[in-house]
Every structure is written in structure tokens, then in C-alpha cells.
Specification:
Radius of gyration: 23 Å
CATH architecture of one domain: 3-Layer(aba) Sandwich
Distance between the termini: 55 Å
CATH class of one domain: Alpha Beta
Strand order of the largest sheet: 4-5-13-10-11-12
Bound molecules: zinc ion
Length: 468
């Protein structure tokens, strides 16, 4: 494989996975493959035809190529949301249609096939969930052992997928950054294939196919909006489209928009540096994007500027309502981070930055089923119709102990018209669901405190209550 440094242009040939330039220490990306003339029609593929793009990747023999029918997802034209915003060409690239319900199945297919071709017996992957779930699925199919390293807080559905696909899971650190350091160390000590996105540039190659499919289906959009964790997805799509332009397949490039959650937005902050310096808010839940110091930060900012795009930070309170809106008006149940793209469209539209007839494409990276606390919030809301009193008591308890930990009779006093056994019934139900936990014990009194999960659910529920 041939690599090129993103900083000093040093070129390196190696069959091993490398991500750092040996000369300057900056990031390596793979050099584009030399491809004979192709036309735009060849970019249009069907469901599961991912390997039709094999000539864009470093060569992997057909007998090592693994597929679970990834790729060929649809670019769905908006029926209702676009209309409500006055936009006539709004599209959603729906990556929830992939086998493990996220765009990372392209990465799973390419990386595990590569590991397979190099005869690795075990694979390691640090991630915030989607890539790990996908690597686990493809590894199980290939008969390769998989070790996932994840931070403490990831969407539970993604962790459940890892277990279901028989991966070993180790929890290391509070952020992906810490898990990543651990995965790098482990792979240096043992003979693991490194399948961590930030440490394996084939990830970028796999993800660039999203851009090919969009172009094959709807042509080059004017705006392409992508959620950013490490910034890798945005870079991948841009790299792929640039290569197409150099091949003469397309003449234009889209304006790239990268979206993050306000307060957890290192790339957007860097983009805005000259205009404003934001204080970093403490985000209690991070909606699947837990990267503190993104490895691709500088490159992502450079691309956004080069493309005349925008970097947008969305207030976290907008995410769940937007996610619900996308599901209820378009039938697409997206993971919370994907809702950032839809919220960005609204913001760009409100600020008259986009033209009503421009072609806009939002990348929907993964399914809402991967984040059960969202489900919990949505189902609790529907239950309020029938058991509103019960629900509001639990909500009130969560609100009370979010401020300070409290004991049973103290909660009873604050709630007013309720018996003590009823309070304890609610407390035990909340405790069983890990929404509260026992705190200190003082004078034989047990104090209860809200858990991280409880805070997430409380916030989600409050957002919904505000909405209706
Ligand atoms: Zn270099």
C-alpha cells in the first residue's frame, strides 16, 4: 500500500497498517489508486454491492473479501421536512440500512477483509460504538477473534451488538481518546490487527464510498452535511469526491458542513477560533460522539474552509426533538448524532445561507435503536397518556435528587401528597433501571442520587415535555 503524509507529502510504501508519517509524525492517508476511466453511472450500485468499488481500494484478493451486504443504501428525498422549510431538494443518505445499522459496515467489510488477507487471528478496535459493533460482526463472520475497547459511556445498543457478535469488550477511560491510546498499546504488544478508525487509514478509504454512492444517485449535492466525532467521515467523503474530480468523473465539489454538539465541539471551535473562543461546556451526555481531541481536527477544518462550507455547533436540547421530527415526518429513526445534520439544515436555512432550490444531502450515520435511552424517553412519553401520574412522580423524583441526594422521607415531604411505601416503590423501580443509585448512609438513612443514565433520561424526558 502507498501512503502519503498530509503535512510533508512524504510517500511511504508498506503492506502494514500505518497512520503516522515517519518523517514529521503527521497523519498518513492512502494514495489514490490508479484507475482507468470510469463514468458516473458506475458509481450507482445496488444493495450489498460494496465490493464493486474494489478498484478504489488497495488490492485485496477476491477470496479474502467479506461481505454482509453492506453499502448501496438509499438517498431518500425528503417528503415533509424539506417542504416545511421551503426546500425543494433535501435528501437523506440513509446509512441505517446497513447490516449492523450504521455507515461503519463499509469499514467492517474492508478492514476485516484486509486482516483476513494478512492472516491475522485477532482484531482490536477502540471506538465510541458503531465501528466496534461493525468490526465485531464482520470478525465473527470471518472467524477472527475481536477485542473492543470502549469508553465508560457509549450507547448501550452498540455495546449489546458487540456482545451479540461475540466480541470481548474492555472499558477503558472516559473518552474515545483514552480507549484509543490503550488499543494502540495493546496492538504494539500483541499480534492484533489494528481496526481503530483513527489508527487505520483504510477506514477513510471505506467511508469515501458514501460519497460515490451519493454522486451516483443524486449527482454532486450543493451541500453535504455530516456529523463529526473525529472528523474522519467528513474527510473520507471529501477525499473520495476529490479523487473523482481528478479522474474527470465530476466537475464540481459540494460545500462540506460538519456538525457537532455545542460544548463538545472541538472542530467547530477550531474553525471559529478567529471569530470567537468558546468556553468548553460540560456536557453530561455526549450522544455517541465522545472524542475530546479529534485526530483529524486540523484537516477537517481545512476541508470545510476549502469547500466554502460551514462548521456548526448545535445546542444539545435540539437533538432529541429533531431526531423525533425526522422519524415522525420522514420515517427515518436516526441515532442522535445524525439529528445534528438535520438541525444544521434548519440553522443554515434560517440564516438564509442556503438557496431554496439547492441540493442538500444529510448523512444519517446510524440507527436510533442503538441509543436505548432515546427509546426510553419516547416510550415514557407515550405512557404518560395512560399512566401520567406514575410517570410524573418518577420524573419529579429524578428532578429532586438531581439537585442533591435525598432520603425517602425527605423525598416524600418534597412531593407532598404521597405515601412513604409509594415513594419507596418508585425508588426501587428507578434503582432497578439504574436511573438512581444509593449514595451515602447517614444516621441509618439511605440517600439516593441520580446516575449518569438517570440524567440522560431526565434530560430526554424534559425535552419531550417541553416539546408537547
Ligand atoms: Zn510527514
Amino acid at each position: 500500500m502507498e501512503y502519503k503524509c498530509t503535512n510533508c507529502n512524504e510517500q511511504i510504501k508498506s503492506e502494514k497498517i500505518k497512520h503516522k508519517c515517519s518523517k514529521c509524525g503527521d497523519l498518513l492517508l492512502l494514495k489514490p489508486q490508479i484507475i482507468d476511466a470510469i463514468n458516473i453511472d458506475e458509481l450507482r450500485i445496488g444493495k450489498g454491492d460494496f465490493w464493486k468499488y474494489h478498484k478504489f481500494f488497495p488490492a485485496i484478493e477476491k477470496k479474502f473479501q467479506i461481505s454482509l451486504s453492506e453499502g448501496g443504501t438509499n438517498c431518500i428525498k425528503s417528503k415533509n421536512l424539506g417542504k416545511s422549510l421551503g426546500l425543494s431538494n433535501l435528501f437523506f443518505k440513509d446509512e441505517t440500512q446497513n447490516p449492523t445499522n450504521s455507515f461503519k459496515d463499509r469499514v467492517g467489510a474492508l478492514l476485516v477483509s484486509h486482516a483476513n488477507s494478512q492472516n491475522y487471528k485477532k482484531i482490536i478496535c477502540a471506538s465510541a460504538g458503531n465501528q466496534g459493533a461493525s468490526i465485531a460482526a464482520y470478525s465473527s463472520y470471518a472467524g477472527i477473534k475481536c477485542l473492543n475497547i470502549i469508553p465508560k459511556r457509549i450507547d448501550e445498543g452498540k455495546r449489546a451488538q458487540m456482545y451479540a457478535y461475540d466480541s470481548v469488550v474492555e472499558i477503558k477511560g472516559d473518552t474515545v481518546d483514552e480507549s484509543l491510546i490503550h488499543a494502540e498499546k495493546r496492538a504494539n504488544e500483541e499480534d492484533f490487527y489494528q481496526a481503530t478508525a483513527e489508527l487505520n487509514p483504510l477506514t477513510i478509504e471505506a467511508q469515501k464510498t458514501i460519497g460515490y454512492e451519493i454522486v451516483g444517485e443524486i449527482g454532486v449535492p450543493d451541500w453535504l452535511i455530516v456529523p463529526m466525532g473525529s472528523g474522519g467521515c467528513l474527510i473520507s467523503i471529501w477525499k473520495g469526491l476529490n479523487e473523482l474530480k481528478e479522474l474527470g468523473v465530476i466537475n464540481e465539489l459540494p460545500k462540506m458542513v460538519g456538525a457537532q454538539v455545542e460544548g463538545w465541539s472541538p472542530i467547530v471551535d477550531k474553525y471559529n477560533l478567529k471569530k470567537q473562543v468558546k468556553s468548553s461546556l460540560k456536557v453530561t451526555h455526549t450522544l455517541g460522539i465522545l472524542v475530546k481531541n479529534p485526530i483529524y481536527k486540523d484537516l477537517a477544518v481545512k476541508i470545510i474552509k476549502e469547500s466554502n462550507g460551514k462548521a456548526i455547533a448545535i445546542n444539545e436540547n435540539l437533538i432529541l426533538p429533531t431526531e423525533r421530527k425526522l422519524a415522525s415526518s420522514e420515517g427515518i429513526f436516526a441515532e442522535p448524532s445524525s439529528a445534528l445534520t438535520v438541525a444544521s439544515v434548519k440553522q443554515l436555512n434560517d440564516q438564509n445561507i442556503i438557496d431554496k432550490n439547492e441540493k442538500i444531502c444529510c448523512l444519517i450515520t446510524g440507527s436510533g435503536l442503538k441509543a436505548p435511552y432515546v427509546l426510553q424517553a419516547l416510550t415514557h412519553k407515550s405512557k404518560t397518556v395512560g399512566i401520567g401520574a406514575l410517570l410524573s412522580t418518577k420524573l419529579k423524583i429524578l428532578q429532586l435528587i438531581e439537585l442533591e441526594s435525598m432520603y425517602g422521607t425527605q423525598i416524600q415531604k418534597n412531593l407532598g401528597d404521597i405515601s412513604l411505601p409509594a415513594v419507596y416503590q418508585h425508588l426501587s423501580e428507578l434503582e432497578i433501571r439504574d436511573l438512581i443509585a444509593r449514595d451515602k448512609k447517614q444516621e441509618k438513612r439511605i440517600y439516593y442520587k441520580i446516575t449518569v443514565k438517570g440524567k440522560k433520561v431526565l434530560k430526554a424526558m424534559q425535552t419531550l415535555v417541553d416539546l408537547f
